[in-house]
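[agent] plan:
  1. take the single chain provided in the ticket
  2. run structure prediction with default settings
  3. attach structure tokens to the ticket
  4. add a short note for the reviewer (M.T.)
[agent] executing step 1
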Amino acid sequence: MHDLAHLREESERAFLVGLDARSRRRAGGNSTVTAQASAARDAATASAPKGEGRPSIPEFDAEESLSELRTLAESAGAEVVGEILQHRDRPDPATLVGGGKLEEIAGAAASVDADVLLFDHDLSPSQQRNIEKIIDRRVIDRTQLILDIFARHARTREGQLQVELAQLHYMMPRLAGRGVEMSQLGGGIGTRGPGETQLETDRRKIARRVRHLEQQLETVRRIRAQQRQRRESAPIATVALVGYTNAGKSTLFNALTRAGVLSSSKMFATLDPTIRGVDLPSKRKVLLSDTVGFIRNLPHTLVSAFRATLEEVQKASLILHVSDASSRLSAEQDAQVEIVLKELEAEKKPRLRVMNKVDLLDQEVAEGLIADATKPESRTIYVSAIEGTCLDLLLHRIDQMIEEDQVSRVHLRIPQSEGKLLALLEARARIYARDYKDGTVEMEAEAPESVVRKVRAFAVE
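[agent] step 2 finished; step 3 output follows
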């Protein structure tokens, strides 16, 4: 990652390169899979507990994968000026796509005056060097592109530390043979480093910087743990939003909490965790946590770096898994979310599926799905965060699934002089009947245990 004095103001011109690798499966003949899908299956297998079989992971085809790369490039501020999809039996170990194809790509990139080549694949350090020699342009692989978007969107000090740590881990194996070039000032995609001045390529200095960042993040984690401990001392449940990037988590978060968090169609618009209180129909309060979006083959360095942030998912009482109901890839995207949840050891947490963006579906289809979701046994809710459709049903279902601070019905007789307690019940309980007599208020109410404890002295058997 180059250090940077300033960013270019104009959009960089990006040329996309995809790879469709055909792999021969056992006796079943040939099948076309993207290299990305193959890596996703490997990641899932690696993260699965021992003794379990290889999980079945749906596959993005090569065109869909390249389309996602296009969205990533635009999120990084690039203008896509061309793309090529290479079909091969297997990736070329030296240049990924093969020498002949690379010459063709070099010509195509030159003809559209591309500044940078973005590969929809992770490149080894030697592949990246070999490609750059032939192409004579900057070459960015998928991981570096995602890291760049993270660097662009990190707002808090913690987010910036996490991204820089991931960038350094990515950069370490790529230092050999690139000393002079790596130390030069640069600009554009793949060169953003939050808060950096002059990023030297000396391994020792980078290792020292990594240790320093890890210590700072450990401090952040400790403070976060103390904050969580204080929260947990009160019986308030945490509900974590997870989902594929751009599924509409932040829009849903805003709709439920009125928090005004940035919601954007760009990928990874939310990096820094945001926690806000939400009142449930039972008058209980829960804390809703918005988290970073997941993506296919989310770089392991990022999962590690963002572990402190993602602890909110590990500690949550309930996970809301938000999906884009309008995307034909929602099943594949959900499988990728499962991989990350497994890596976080959070896959067995109580979970509620929230299919968002029903406003983009055919009206008749949407109405049928919403009707099915109203059945009490349904573990899937269909909503439109942007239009507010079925959000009341979602809050009701969250209320049913949260076990903390259980609600019970009480019969109370409270002196009217106890103004604070009466105000507490007004705010935090559902009152079914109320009668004033002889300077007291007699009421039938349903309230969370934390409230009942405070008024138990006035309970009437």
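[agent] step 4 note for reviewer: The mean pLDDT is 80.
[agent] ticket updated
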